[in-house]
């Protein structure tokens, strides 16, 4: 397994959940992390916890220039960017006619455009060094769909398709592209838009640390191999 010490990662959606857990896990492996999110107060708290190995960047993944801002922050702070983890995402549960226009637009902009913009910002530097990793945190809903999640699932299918195409485009140039597609994860995700803190089954879902360990495992692979799609589910999840 490859040693991650000294590598630099940028993570979107780092103010909570999988992004926050991934920042902790990568720093524990000796990496430096630049974490982007909209909630500056959450980022500050995480920076206070993680110290000099973590640089917070207030940003919105839906904005192309903010993708550039994230990458530039990594280069300014640590001299390079080796890994991009496109993690930011939102979800709204409900049938196709249950969601508002604004909710649908927000899901598409955050989950699809918000994956593309940081990747576009990161790829030129990776091409210049001939090495890098792009990890997209999608969902099992992007592999098989899900009831009452049609638009959300469509955005996750888009991420899986994007990753497959990028793998064909970039792997010969030394850049690995991986999708991690978990089932339900017990985070703030969709709280108030389909989930509640006391909802049945939440305690049986994956934990964000589980997904973070998958991120670590993907990055520690020898450079001679790549994982395309890693789908993971809680042992308790039936459907």
Count of DSSP-assigned helices: 7
CATH class assignment: Alpha Beta
Mean pLDDT: 93
Radius of gyration, taken over Cα atoms and rounded to an integer in Å: 17 Å
Count of domain modules: 1
CATH fold description: Rossmann fold
SS content category: alpha/beta
| End-to-end CA span | 33 Å
Question: What is the second-level CATH architecture?
Answer: 3-Layer(aba) Sandwich
Could you name the CATH homologous superfamily?
NAD(P)-binding Rossmann-like Domain
Outline: globular
Query: Major sheet: size, sense and barrel closure?
Result: 7 strands, parallel
List how many beta strands DSSP finds: 7
Query: How do the SSEs run, as a string of H and E?
Result: EHEHEHEHEHHEHE
- The percent range for strand residues is 15-25%
Query: Low-confidence stretches at least 5 residues in length (pLDDT < 50)?
Result: none
What is the strand arrangement across the widest sheet? 3-2-1-4-5-6-7
Helix content: 40-55%
Describe the structure.
- With 239 residues, the protein is an alpha/beta fold.
- Helix 1 packs across helix 7.
- 44% of the residues lie in helices and 16% in strands.
- The chain has a 7-stranded parallel β-sheet, with helices on both faces.
- It is built from 7 helices and 7 strands, in the order E-H-E-H-E-H-E-H-E-H-H-E-H-E.
- It has a single domain, classed as Rossmann fold.
């Amino acid at each position: 397994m490859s040693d991650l010490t000294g590598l630099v990662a940028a993570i979107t959606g780092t103010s909570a959940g999988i992004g926050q857990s991934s920042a902790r896990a990568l720093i524990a492996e000796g990496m430096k992390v630049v974490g982007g999110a909209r909630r500056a107060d959450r980022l500050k708290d995480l920076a206070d916890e993680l110290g000099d190995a973590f640089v917070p960047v207030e940003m919105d993944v839906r904005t192309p220039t903010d993708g550039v801002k994230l990458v530039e922050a990594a280069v300014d702070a640590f001299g390079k960017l080796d890994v991009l983890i496109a993690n930011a995402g939102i979800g709204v549960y409900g049938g196709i006619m249950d969601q508002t226009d604004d909710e649908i637009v927000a899901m598409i902009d955050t989950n699809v455009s918000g994956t593309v913009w940081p990747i576009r910002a990161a790829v030129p530097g990776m091409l210049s060094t001939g090495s890098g990793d792009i990890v997209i945190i999608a969902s099992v809903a992007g592999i098989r769909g899900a009831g009452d999640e049609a638009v959300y699932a469509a955005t996750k299918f888009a991420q899986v398709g994007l990753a497959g195409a990028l793998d064909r485009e970039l792997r010969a140039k030394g850049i690995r592209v991986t999708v991690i597609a978990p089932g339900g994860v017990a985070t703030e995700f969709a709280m108030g838009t389909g989930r509640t803190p006391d909802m049945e089954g939440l305690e049986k879902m994956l934990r964000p640390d589980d997904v973070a360990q998958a991120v670590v495992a993907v990055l520690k692979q020898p450079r001679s191999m790549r994982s395309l799609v890693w789908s993971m589910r809680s042992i308790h999840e039936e459907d």
